[in-house]
Structures are given as C-alpha cells and as structure tokens.
Amino acid sequence: MPEAICTSRAAIVDRIRAANRSVDAALCSAEYGSIAREYQQSSSMYRATVLAAFEERLREYGACVYRTASAGLPAKIGEVFVAHGQRSVVAADDFPRRWLPEGFRWQTEAGVDTEALNRTEGAVVTCEVAIAHTGTIILKGVRRLTLLPDRLCCVVQENQIVETVPEAIDRMQSFATDALTFISGPSATADIEMTRISGVHGPRVLDVVIVLSQRD
Fold it and tell me: Average pLDDT of 49-58?
C-alpha cells in the first residue's frame, strides 16, 4: 500500500481516537436519552392480528406461509419439501433433530462445503425473532444457508413474532453482536429496465412454517 495512503489513514484514525477521548460520556448519554421517540415502540394489536399481519407481509413479498401445531411440525416440513420435489436437505447445525421428517437425506451445515451447499436442493433453519410490521425474519449464524441453496425453509415459533421493530431490537440484546441475517421474502433484484429476477442474492423460494402456540 502506498505510503501516502497509510499516512492519511493513520491521521484519520488518530483524529477519531482523539475525538472519542474528548467525549463527555455522561453528556452524550443525557442527550441521547432526551431524543423524542414518538414512533410506536410496543404492540397495539391482538396476537391473532399480529400473526395475520406477519403472514400478509410475507405473502406480499412472495414467500409461502404455512401454519402447524408443534406435534405436526415434522410432517408439515416434509409436506413442504415434497411439494418442491425435494429429497435432500441441509439443516442448520442447531436445528432440532426431532423436527426432521423421515424419508429425506439430511446433512448439517458443518458437514458440507461451499460447493456441496451450492448444489443442495434446499436448507432448513430456525429463527430468533420475527417482525410483523415488516415481514422480517431474523436469523443467527446461518449466513451461508441464506445465500447458496435455491430454497430455504424457516421455522418460526408463534411466540417469536413481535409487532414492531423496537420490540425485536429489545429481544435481540442478548445476541446483538452475533452474525445476524435479516430476510423479508425470497431474494429478488431488478435491472435498469426493472425486470425482476429471483434468487440472485439468496433463496429463490422461501417457505415459512409458523408453529402455533398451544392454547388452553
């Protein structure tokens, strides 16, 4: 790297460090706390309405959405795979094995290299939090599975779905520094002529299986 570039970079970093040393942390905290936050920060809808809004957003983005009870989850996942003619699946390393239906060839993410993952028929993951307002699903530690396979199946527990973004941010505090992926529907992009193309930067097909909470 040219010496001039190194010198300029060092100068910028030194200025940033000097600025940070001169900051009054207490004053900054007080100023931050005084910012008006008039946007919605908590849920205002019934749980059934939150769930319906989440499903509606996902369908608007082109995702396929399914509901199931906990006991029927393996069968529902198998049904989704069969609908795509899918016989082999790569599961996230922490995906519960009791949820995997029989009759499919299973591999874990740790057990496949990038080339094999690119050729697989699909992947299945769990989520950490989901946001009804935006139709967003937040995943942790499964970046490769959201980029390479053509199809992605995500299992979302009903109690993981919140109405607003601030609620989701609150839930993320315990793992906010982890590698997170936010997805809202299948991958899609458009060229200058606005021709829509799916699957360029991620899964072409997104299936979301919502596991309903048990009611009394």
Answer: 96
